[in-house]
Amino acid sequence: MHTFTEAFSLALALILTGGSDLYQIVGLSLQVSLGATLVACALGLPLGALVAIARFRGRNLLLIVMNALMGLPPVVVGLLVYLQLSRSGPLGFLGLLYTPTAMVIAQTILITPIIAALSRQVLEDLHGEYAEQFRSLCLRPAQVMGALLWDGRHALLTVGLAGFGRAVAEVGAVMIVGGNIDHLTRVMTTAIALETSKGDLPLALALGLVLLGLALVINGAVQALRPAAQRPVHV
């Protein structure tokens, strides 16, 4: 058992040298989380824009559901995806269980509601401010959505970063559908849990430091983009 000082020194050495497959684990984590974030943005941003401009019966109920889905329990999502992708499930023939693709699917389900709900709020505020101009130009709904998405791109980028931060820190769902297989589906969060249970504190701490560094970078990017997101938009 290492002392904290020894473990911290060894962790820094691992980060600098990339030993014990550290970079491979970090690379897979980024690949899975970035892939899930891109898919979630492709689904969530148009959905958020549509709900922002649409007015229909049951909209308030839809907003409640969207906000509630932001708090989806990761293990429940992992279980549902597992049931769909297992051999006895409807999508079992695809052979995706215990692959990075299954992890991307689970993370996408988790963060799409977050991106949709946050983007809806951003775009609804923009739409309320410029609704009269949109009406005067006789724009179709698709054109309004496009204008809002473009003019709110800086704020929406922070939404995407928030989704990525949620995805890269996920452990429960990816553990269930990925299996934490070495050199195949082992990502930072699942590796930290495994190495801590094994007593390999230097590697667990090194991965934790990298994950903490990513969190700081994401938050720094959000803060840097905030002034741009708060500039007046132009239609």
UniProtKB/TrEMBL annotation:
<dbReference type="Pfam" id="PF00528">
    <property type="entry name" value="BPD_transp_1"/>
</dbReference>
<dbReference type="GO" id="GO:0055085">
    <property type="term" value="P:transmembrane transport"/>
</dbReference>
<dbReference type="InterPro" id="IPR035906">
    <property type="entry name" value="MetI-like_sf"/>
</dbReference>
<comment type="similarity">
    <text>Belongs to the binding-protein-dependent transport system permease family.</text>
</comment>
<feature type="transmembrane region" description="Helical">
    <location>
        <begin position="155"/>
        <end position="181"/>
    </location>
</feature>
<keyword id="KW-0813">Transport</keyword>
<feature type="transmembrane region" description="Helical">
    <location>
        <begin position="61"/>
        <end position="85"/>
    </location>
</feature>
<dbReference type="InterPro" id="IPR049783">
    <property type="entry name" value="ABC_perm_TupB-like"/>
</dbReference>
<feature type="transmembrane region" description="Helical">
    <location>
        <begin position="97"/>
        <end position="118"/>
    </location>
</feature>
<keyword id="KW-1133">Transmembrane helix</keyword>
<feature type="transmembrane region" description="Helical">
    <location>
        <begin position="201"/>
        <end position="222"/>
    </location>
</feature>
<feature type="domain" description="ABC transmembrane type-1">
    <location>
        <begin position="26"/>
        <end position="222"/>
    </location>
</feature>
<feature type="transmembrane region" description="Helical">
    <location>
        <begin position="32"/>
        <end position="54"/>
    </location>
</feature>
<dbReference type="InterPro" id="IPR000515">
    <property type="entry name" value="MetI-like"/>
</dbReference>
<dbReference type="GO" id="GO:0005886">
    <property type="term" value="C:plasma membrane"/>
</dbReference>
<keyword id="KW-0812">Transmembrane</keyword>
<protein>
    <submittedName>
        <fullName>Tungstate transport system permease protein</fullName>
    </submittedName>
</protein>
<keyword id="KW-0472">Membrane</keyword>
